[in-house]
Specification:
The protein is an alpha/beta fold and 305 residues long. 38% of the residues lie in helices and 18% in strands.
């Protein structure tokens, strides 16, 4: 891919595009919001595959269990959204993280991503939105490095460049996978968590006012968010960051109405949870500001219509 084409592909896409969502859907409530936002944005975004990503925390017993729970949760959301026509394009992902930067973890999701991407080109790329550990995407790139020219990867991962460290959940689970993705030469759009995306938050009263009673999907999202918040902040004032919505939002960011970004040399994540910066590296897109109210307005309008 020429540098000119790479820079073009790092811009917000114009017109209808094809999208793959790679998601650890059972990890936190923000994945459910992001998937729902994607499903309700069909005027621009056509879903080609939904891939379950591994995760390991209090909501799973292992990365494999996290992936399996996420896989099942995708079907649950498709049912609530009345989009069960997409059931055939849901794929199980990696059951472990990458053992190193050279060894793929084979999975139905990684193989499907390779198959799909080979049907695209630098001039008409496949957009891959990743909102979990980026193991599936890195594995696909390792299985067939040639697909790097045919995809644009938007990943919610890491913290801002100004943050003192980058031990963010998605990145620290699989640093080798992050290094593969940032090093492969593909157009990568990074949405950093702390310092950028943490500005996109909501509260219980706000969610109930705008989403409550609108439809089954909205009611599920509100109830699930409040349940999660009450698990750690019962009886206290709380707000909840809905991180993953922003990654889908970048695809819809016409005229910078939802967020702002800049082109920087692709940072290289290190295993000590810091970035290495080399100004001779290929360019990447770095989102640095979220227009919180505009993005929330668009989310509410899509989910309730």
């Amino acid at each position: 891919m020429t540098r000119e084409q790479l820079l073009k592909n790092l811009q917000v896409p114009v017109g209808p595009i094809d999208v793959v969502l790679d998601t650890d859907t059972y990890n936190e409530i923000d994945d459910q919001f992001a998937l729902s936002y994607l499903l309700r944005s069909g005027e621009k975004l056509t879903v080609k595959a939904l891939c379950a990503a591994p995760f390991f925390n209090d909501n799973s017993t292992s990365p494999e269990d996290g992936m399996e729970r996420s896989y099942r949760e995708i079907f649950n959301l498709l049912h609530l959204a009345e989009r069960e026509d997409l059931n055939p394009v849901v794929f199980e992902g990696s059951r472990t993280y990458l053992p190193d930067e050279h060894t793929a973890v084979d999975s139905p999701a990684a193989r499907e991503l390779v198959r799909l991407a080979k049907g695209y080109s630098p001039e008409k790329p496949l957009y891959v939105v990743a909102i979990g550990a980026i193991t599936n995407v890195a594995s696909a790139l390792l299985l067939d490095p040639s697909i790097a020219d045919n995809v644009v990867i938007a990943w919610l991962g890491g913290h801002s460049l100004e943050w003192p460290e980058t031990s963010e959940f998605n990145m620290m689970q699989d640093v080798p996978a992050a290094r593969v993705v940032f090093g492969c030469g593909a157009p990568v759009v990074q949405l950093p968590c702390m310092g950028v995306v943490d500005h996109f938050y909501a509260t219980g009263p706000e969610l109930r006012y705008w989403l409550g009673g609108k439809n089954a999907l909205c009611d599920y999202l509100v109830a699930h968010t409040e349940e999660a918040a009450n698990a750690y902040a019962a009886g206290k004032v709380w707000s909840r960051v809905i991180w993953d919505v922003t990654a889908v939002g970048w695809l819809l960011n016409d005229d910078n109405r939802l967020m702002e970004s800049r082109i920087i040399p692709a940072p290289l994540p290190q295993c000590d949870h810091h970035y290495s910066i080399d100004f001779t590296r290929h360019p990447s897109c770095y989102v640095w500001r979220i227009h919180r109210d505009a993005l929330m307005q668009d989310l509410v309008e899509k989910l309730t219509r």
